[in-house]
Amino acid sequence: MLVQELELNCVFAVASKPEGIDVNWVELDPRMLPQSLEVAPEFSQIVIPNDCDPARITRFIRTSGTTGAPKLIALSRGMVPKRLFAHYIVCEGAGSNRHLLSMPPGTIAGYGFLLMALLRGATVTPWLNGDDFDALIDRFHISHLLLAPIAFHDIVISNARKGCSFSSVCCTTTGGAPFESQLANKARSVLGPNIWNGYTSTEAGFIARGHLNLLDTDPNIIGKILPFVNLQIVDEQDNPVPVGETGIVKIATELAVDHYVNSTDEDGVFRNGYIYPGDLGAVDDKGYLKILGRADGLINVRGLKAMPENIEH
């Protein structure tokens, strides 16, 4: 048995095996999890020493840059378990499952999915630049994929042209952008039917998640807003818009940070206890989120609003 301390600053007990590393336990404090959620059974016997300061900074994460130039956020020891629990809800697979991650651990999705896969006892393989994707799938019998949107698109298109499919893959997760129904159909043929799309923010964590089949009803739909997230759609004066109408997305959640590290918030992301990621969206009467573009790309001419991608030349 090998005990080592990772960047998380929580102690993992891990066993080194030829096929990878299985995590048997991790020290977390269930009291630090969101109060609006019940503690999963896996967390019921997990505690941290009493002398650990929940305010101590334990991890820096770089933003994607969609809200401006890439910046850093700081996660405290108290915040990390909350973020991990959110990933626990949406991260599938355990035991003999093998995960391939295209998002590096320096991103919020890559970091969370990596740790949750290990907590579940799964094996994790990083997909590094230059690695042959098809060869990795075949060699390690990958069952679960976490793919950035651009990687998802390229893999689906290239393998659809070759007529390839990956029989070992039983679950794929991507996120960050809606995609067209034509791409969704090709994705099913290449990666199988169990494909999930997510909406996340480095500043706020996991926000919404939905199955690819939702695109059959609406091409812009992402998924159901997670139960611990307060997401509102507002107009330019910050007033709530009617259900189903398009407006600016703003988010409040226990998983959110409230500032950047050594950087000014010139884009106004943090305002009055909410995070404004800069997206346009709508929420239907069942709590499903649609992402319809970027607020800063909205064209407004005498009250008539349109996104550039919806304007024909």
What does this structure look like?
The structure is a single chain. With 313 residues, this protein is of the alpha+beta class. It has one domain (2-310): ANL, N-terminal domain (Rossmann fold). It has helices at residues 79-90, 108-119, 133-140, 149-162, 181-191, and strands spanning 2-5, 11-17, 20-26, 57-62, 72-76, 98-101, 123-126, 144-146, 171-175, 195-201, 205-211, 221-225, 229-234, 247-253, 270-271, 274-275, 279-283, 288-294, 299-301, 304-306. It has an eleven-stranded mixed sheet, with helices on both faces. It has a three-stranded antiparallel sheet with strand order 1-2-3, with no helix packed on it.
Features:
about 325 residues; eleven-stranded mixed sheet; alpha+beta; disordered N terminus; 5 helices
Largest beta-sheet characterization: 11 strands, mixed
> How many distinct folded domains?
1
What is the percentage of strand-forming residues?
25-35%
Widest sheet, order of strands: 7-6-8-9-10-11-12-18-17-14-13
Using only C-alpha atoms, the radius of gyration works out to 20 Å
The overall strand count is 20
CATH superfamily: ANL, N-terminal domain
In whole angstroms, the N-to-C terminal distance is 64 Å
Count of helix runs: 5
The CATH topology is Rossmann fold
Order of helices and strands: EEEEEHEHEHEHEHEEEEEEEEEEE
- Helical percent range? 10-25%
What would the average pLDDT be, to the nearest integer?
A: 75
Given helix and strand content, the structural type is alpha+beta
CATH class: Alpha Beta
Name given to the CATH architecture: 3-Layer(aba) Sandwich
Shape: globular
List low-confidence stretches.
1-51, 300-305
